[in-house]
């Protein structure tokens, strides 16, 4: 349009000695979100606060649009519906890159519009846009159906696993074989990991599920986070997945409590500790989960200036966070042993600092 100037910061279409009338200009989109994105990209965020009516005549020239933003890469008259200007500063295109696409008569008749321009092929383009919209709707429907099927499959799988835990070992082995066959499209490593996480195979469960075990759990303390303990969410463990818990592990044969605390903390958080000391002992029994454990809770100081965890790849927990001891997550989000500790014991972490 004659008299319009591109609003892009530092843009001057005539500085290359090119006739502005042969460049295409595109009005700002009527949609507020996309209009603001255009203004942000072109460095004119100052215009966002202007009244919408005052932005009707604001335009950007075609020098700021990549070929992919045009409906036809060889015809720069029409933008795709979701086009964004991305070429500014040294990336701004040179007018010489564009060939004159309309003669003087067509140029005077062309309408300045953000998405359309004068010319033939309008009906074909409308059919194309309608076809694209229809295909997008079909794709969205298929994705929703797939998501529902996956949720149904996961629910059925979890139901079978819960029932399987009550079966004798020989029946469990038979069920595992059936599950492996049903999950054949998945990679073998992924299947085994899935079964391990659900306590059907793998070394995570104790050799004898009915035998109580002793477990060390470490309440990490840091002067950078007074009154707080470090908790992570179980992600790759057979028991306690999705629950917050401190660094913990079962005591190895011949291992001291202090050594077990240092080892568990290192393998879960990558942090060294010092001065571990017993602060509580908790017994947790959950027959429905075949879990009977004596937990030795130990308070220990982080032995490094930066108390930020860096879990190794083999860690069973993730998303480590410092929680105020008086403001821990709700009980339904705590691992069973930590839940029992909070219910039955009163611990003032400040006494261990």
Automatic annotation (TrEMBL):
Entries under Pfam families matching the protein: NUDIX, THAP
Swiss-Prot/TrEMBL keywords: DNA-binding, Metal-binding, Zinc, Zinc-finger
Domain spans labelled Nudix hydrolase: 194-346
Cellular-component GO terms for this entry: cytosol
InterPro entries found in the cross-reference section: NUDIX_hydrolase-like_dom_sf (IPR015797), NUDIX_hydrolase_dom (IPR000086), THAP_Znf (IPR006612)
One Gene Ontology biological process: dGTP catabolic process
GO molecular function ontology, one term from the record: zinc ion binding
Superkingdom of source: Eukaryota
Entry-linked PROSITE patterns: NUDIX (PS51462), ZF_THAP (PS50950)
Residues covered by the THAP-type domain: 1-88
Entry protein name: Nudix hydrolase domain-containing protein
